[in-house]
Design goal:
The chain is α+β, with helices and mostly antiparallel strands. Helix content is about 50%, strand content about 15%. It contains 31 helices and 28 strands. Strand 14 and strand 15 form a beta hairpin.
Amino acid sequence: LQLHGPNSLPQAHRRPAWLRFLLQFHNPLIYVLVVSGVVTFALADYVDSGVIFGVVVINAIIGFVQEGKAESALEAVRQMLAIYANVLRDGERCQVDASTLVPGDVVLLESGDKVPADLRLIKARNLGIEESALTGESVPVEKAIAPVAADAVIADRSCMAYSGTLVTAGHGQGIVVATGGQTEIGRIGSMVGELQTLSTPLTRRLDQLARQITAFILAIGLLTFLYGFFVAKLPALDIFLAVVGLAVAAIPEGLPAIVTIVLAIGTRAMARNRAIIRRLPAVETLGSVSVICTDKTGTLTRNEMTVVRLFMENREIAVSGGGYVPEGGFHEHDLPVDVAEDMEINRLARCALLCNDASIRHEADAWHVTGDPTEGALITLARKAGLDPVESSRLFPRVDEIPFDSERRFMATLHHDHEGHHFILLKGAPERVLELCTRQAGGRTLDHDYWLGCIHGAAAAGERVLALAQCELHGERMQIELHDIMPRFELLGLVGIIDPPREEAVSAIAECRRAGIEVKMITGDHAVTAAAIGSKLGLSASNVLTGEMIAGMDDAMLRQKLSETDVIARANPEHKLRLIAILQSEGQLVAMTGDGVNDAPALKAADIGVAMGGKGTDAAREASDIVLTDDNFATIERAVREGRIVFDNLKKSLLFLLPTDIGEGGVILLAIFAGLAMPVTAGQILWVNTVTAITLALALAFEPGERNVMDHPPRPSSEPIVTRMLALRILFVAMLMMAATFSIFEWELSRGSSIETARTAAVNMLVAGELIYLFNVRHFTTSAFTWETLTGNPVVLWVSAALIVFQLLFTYAAPMQELFLTQALDAASWLIIVTFAIVEFLAVEIEKAVWRGFKVVRM
């Protein structure tokens, strides 16, 4: 213990809570907001200042709560370790605390035990261990004591038992070779702890935008102050207040709130589609994904072994239906087979049912298997053939048995039929069963070449093959011995078993490819099985990569090979990490799905980690950004669609907020440089920013997706959030708003109105322009001259009505007039405002038509 330490995972180094909280404020966008809050406070606008600081604090709290994913993941891995272990010490069997195990201890393993440390097996009898959480294998691994190659991948190390895995059958002994952090599960835990959480495309883009806004405001503010003080000879206080007004106008105070609301609404939509979001920015990240690396078992497949083919003499029968649901039929040459009249299928199905130790049951609207999944598939086959397990056991009771043994590779059971007839049923590895058969169904001599061809054909299709045989006995027998199992059996046939692909996964993969998203299947299964499943799913599976091949390649070769295939087999955790790193180095945005402990490092290293909520481990869920409650790849495709909608809505919100801010800032800037009176005051600007942010901009969060949202490739991860086309639209609309605001301000002054009335008209012009522009911005380039513009998003109508009420109060309510220095407007003023707003609407629609002429559908 002094030398190796306790058999437990090391505690992760954690940052103190206060430091984690303070680091939430270390963000350029937060800096801009803090400056905005200070400015509004200095202007004695305590309500708006409170709102801004409230947004900052709420964002910090959310980030603080979401922090520490690595620590949680490591804790979940730690909880997988066994608590107690049965060992041989001083020649006696005893139970000890698993944390006291050391290398050299001899551990006893029995069915149902959790393996307490990494063991080199020295005894194994019918020993089967469930390693799917560590390797991705869909069936328990048969263990033996024979050594394997030193460079064998984990899934092929049949002489080893690994900490955290579960013994499903048999018993054995092993010598402890690694404990605590030195075990495979400990190594994975350390990988999870060492990985840094990657920033999302949204946070990177918003950081970039915040830096640009900050630099722009500082530069323009400095230039304006220098011009006003040195050139225009304005008093320092006056020009300073004007610059403050410019800063208030240019800062998008409502942006963080809008971003949070859009992401929250996306989170709710994904939850309805069975995808639970653990981190808000992950909603948008899915919309940017260009490669999905997915686990096979349970995600692309059902994780339920299913008999799909029967091989009998000169016959090949296809079996329909998937999983353990006893529904489906039998087809020969695409024609249905009447099983009740087909004695060959009946005899084979009876053997599959009786020479079997598993059972299937119906619970909570689903069918579950108790025992070995492969035997569960055989029971389902028998039930599809119309056999009842209880009735069959009554008619042909089991008298004795020889259990399956990994060395013998078969199971045999002795039965009778209440009429004095006794017979042995045999089930096992096809090569072993063929050695014990002298004839095939019908009494004809066994055609070895034919059956070997069937075996190879099924194996090439990724199917696990079992052979079923029967032997009639003379006289009454009450027990069988190993010497009774000799070459005298009649071969009933072969069954091909596979974990079938989900039907919805096939169409989801096709949809992803149509959207320009690559799908890579990474599995712990053998290459042949992986290739067969990959082909059925529509993936490129001709040049399967294996973990052994990955280990022997340099990055350049691996990058080339990875571009030639979509299937990677026999992959260890470090192989998955390397594959993700290679893809990310090419600028790809990678999503990784998984359910096992072995997937946790890759889930954390990927840009977006997607864990299985049903059959997944806690370690995988804690390391992920998104958890699928139905463990289905099709849900990922729907989540990608929702992510694209969320990002589009974020861009529409920016497309709405930024022209207003630039327009307001431009109005002030133009007034300063032209030596004119300010068309709006700083307080009025804050009113406009606040009232439109909580009404109009909020409505865009509820926008349904564009019709072509999945018809274009993913956005490049390097693409800024404000693209060139988006910037042109923003500037165009800002110029329209500036022109309209100045025009109505000057028009009011020219007809003798007071400065307060002219400013009131200017503010209402800004708001009216934004209100009408909201209907433009609902679609990037699609025409707004459709009925859907009014009916597609009911929230737009509600917030428009609310905004009109707010502006009427702003214009006519006495307290508002006193607070914001406004005056009532007459009918002529409103007529001009509405006319200018309609002109703005038409101008933007003409601009959209120009973009459509250039085949532009997204910005």
